[in-house]
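Crash report, auto-generated. Payload:
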Amino acid sequence: MRFAARVEVRLRPGIADPEGATIERALPALGFEDVSALATGRVFRFEVEAATEARARERAEALAGALLANPVLEEASVSVCSLEA
Amino acid sequence: MAPRVGVVVFPGTNCEHDVVLALERVGADAELVWHAATRLDHLDAVVVPGGFAHGDYLRPGALARFSPVMGALSRFAAVGGPVVGICNGFQVLTEAGLLPGALQKNRDLRFMCGPVSVTVASSRSVLTRAVPAGTELLLAINNFDGSYVCTPETLAQLRDEDRVVLRYCQNPNGSLDDIAGICNRAGNVVGLMPHPERASSELLGSTDGLVLLRSLVGVGVP
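Recovered output after restart:
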């Protein structure tokens, strides 16, 4: 079965996010005084062939841990869903 | 016979010729090594120079560890071969797990390029074995992701084991503990953000990088 996987990678708490901080500093000038705690991250999407959803999640988590996120700087969250009709 | 030093070239590396020139200046027989190479055992030392290996895609250094040469480099390092990663080369070595920690974006989100003063913090690495601790050197930095970071446990270990090799005199980028360079436990694998090769000629404003490269190649080192 084919599964769609989505991996969100974001900086760990305590790791500087100067890009996020810079965006946040610009917000009041655009009238978004009510927005805070802005953080940047990246999203990866891919497909996995696996027998079960649990196995697909396992593979996506393995890829996130081995390559997509650097564990010193980043953490990842993984979601998968079936592509079968 | 002059020591043979390999200078690894990934697609996107751009400091290799500068490093070769600087190595030749200290008496080494330097040669370029393409990233597809699978053997390094004919070499006396290996330098992973700066640039943008594999375009810095994903993260600086992240994709380089899948190049064939990295397997050979790990084996070379495991048997005590001297390995130095400069700038992007340092990022490659951390991503490959040959050195702990990581390099994050500079504190002020600026690409930084210019002279930088560092202090030799330890003489137990292959890059500093001929330089007494406390020596101040004028080198150059040229990076965006140059701020060293690691877990508190790793930092404690680096300090306890005397593995911080270079510290900035004035921290330019928010680097943890002013760290400009570190080494592995054995001292034969070193990573540093400043470029010794950019301080290898009076024309460049400093020759302080030569003493580091001389340490590495062992020419004139007691």
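Post-recovery validation: The domain at 2-82 of chain A is CATH 3.30.1280.10 (Mth169; Chain: A ,).
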